[in-house]
Amino acid sequence: MTGGTERPRVTELTYYPVKGCAGVEVPEARVTPDGLPHDRAYVIVDEAGELRWQWGDPGLALITPQVLDEAAGLTLRAPDRDDLRVDGEGQAEEVTHLPGQPYGAVDQGEEAAAWVTGVLGRPSRLLRVRKAPGGTAANHSRLHVVSRASLDRLNGHLAERGVAPLPMNRFRPNLVVDGWDTPHTEDTAARLLIGDTELAFTEPTVRCAITMVDQDTGRRAGPEPLRTLADYRKGEDGIVFGAYFAVVRQGKVTVGDAVEVMDA
């Protein structure tokens, strides 16, 4: 897969404690059948219990979470706001995930609701997702993988249009691989071996308007990358960039680990 002497390697490892909010980069993580620990462990919902998402609420990108302990206590930070700390406990209630799949969640209370409402400017609540069979409904127990070669190809096309390159965080991956000569190798890799961890391809990532939100400013910044991706990455299901992988064999993944592609 690579023409050089260097083997493809993991260069970024990120989890997202609150779905839609900023990610947390880590040097290593223990990958479990549910994915990365604490990934999408919390969600922010509107008054009807529907998930808030970045295109509708781009200010989510400016909320920076920090997991405090293995019990999933959480601190949230945002510009010009005092920090919010929650313990993950509360009153259980049913909410509805956007695709219509019900899952359990624990409301984090009025103080948390007031904090996220103040940041987003619309009535909102913070909930901790309760584990469902096979993982949580919020992350589907899988890892989102994007290669540097794929981003480099996109940025090459953007340059042809006189558009500045985009950073990897526009695509919010869990795992970034560098060293594949062929862009979009993640689309065709049946399995990935990373140390003692094994991942299996499940489906390409269909991209939505969230990729047009600047993750550093929390502002909508379209029409890129969707305009350019539509020229060469549009399939039957939509515009695809990156891929989802399920955890076949759990283990520890460290930035710098070699990544081996298995075709079957």
From TrEMBL:
UniProt organism field: Streptomyces phaeoluteigriseus
Pfam families associated with the record: MOSC (PF03473), MOSC_N (PF03476)
Lineage: Bacteria, Bacillati, Actinomycetota, Actinomycetes, Kitasatosporales
Domain of life: Bacteria
Domain named MOSC: residues: 106-262
Entry protein name: MOSC domain-containing protein
